[in-house]
């Protein structure tokens, strides 16, 4: 059964906390994580195992994912979302 999680908040929360993250190549996850997560095919267990082993054994990859993950996650803040929505409301209100 496909994931019904939606937008990708669990991945973003992990990345925000400095956890090297792997996500399925489905839904919004590749787009939301923007290259800051290992992408796996949930229907290919052999390749998934290889990618997870790579993540476990490659310190440089983990360091890059931690750095990039924090940068990507920082772009998704409630305050920024609220400000963007408020700008739209103000623009519509002044029409």
Report on the architecture of this protein.
By secondary structure, the chain is mostly helical. Helices cover 61% and strands 6% of the residues. The chain has one domain: Rossmann fold. Strand 1, helix 2 (29-33) and strand 2 form a beta-alpha-beta unit. The longest helix is centred in the last third of the chain and has 16 residues, at 59-74.
Main attributes of the structure:
mainly alpha, Rossmann fold, two-stranded parallel ribbon, 5 helices
Helix content: 55-70%
In CATH, the homologous superfamily goes by the name Glycogen Phosphorylase B
**Rg from Cα:** 16 Å
Mean pLDDT: 91
Task: Name the CATH class.
Answer: Alpha Beta
* Strand residues, percent: 5-15%
CATH architecture: 3-Layer(aba) Sandwich
Q: Strand tally, please? A: 2
Instruction: Tell me the span between the first and last alpha carbons.
Output: 45 Å
Sheet with the most strands, sense and barrel status: 2 strands, parallel
Q: Structural class, judged by helices and strands?
A: mainly alpha
Question: Uncertain spans, ≥5 residues at pLDDT below 50?
Answer: none
Q: Which strands sit side by side, in order, in the main sheet?
A: 1-2
Shape: elongated
Oligomeric state, counting identical vs distinct chains: single chain
């Amino acid at each position: 059964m496909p994931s019904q999680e939606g937008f990708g908040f669990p991945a973003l929360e992990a990345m925000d906390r400095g956890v090297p993250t792997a996500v399925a190549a489905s839904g919004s996850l590749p787009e939301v994580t923007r290259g800051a997560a290992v992408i796996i095919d949930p229907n290919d267990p052999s390749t998934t195992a290889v990618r997870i082993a790579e993540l476990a054994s490659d310190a440089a990859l983990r360091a890059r994912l931690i750095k990039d993950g924090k940068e990507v996650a920082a772009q998704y803040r409630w305050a920024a979302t609220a400000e963007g929505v408020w700008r739209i409301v103000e623009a519509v209100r002044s029409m």
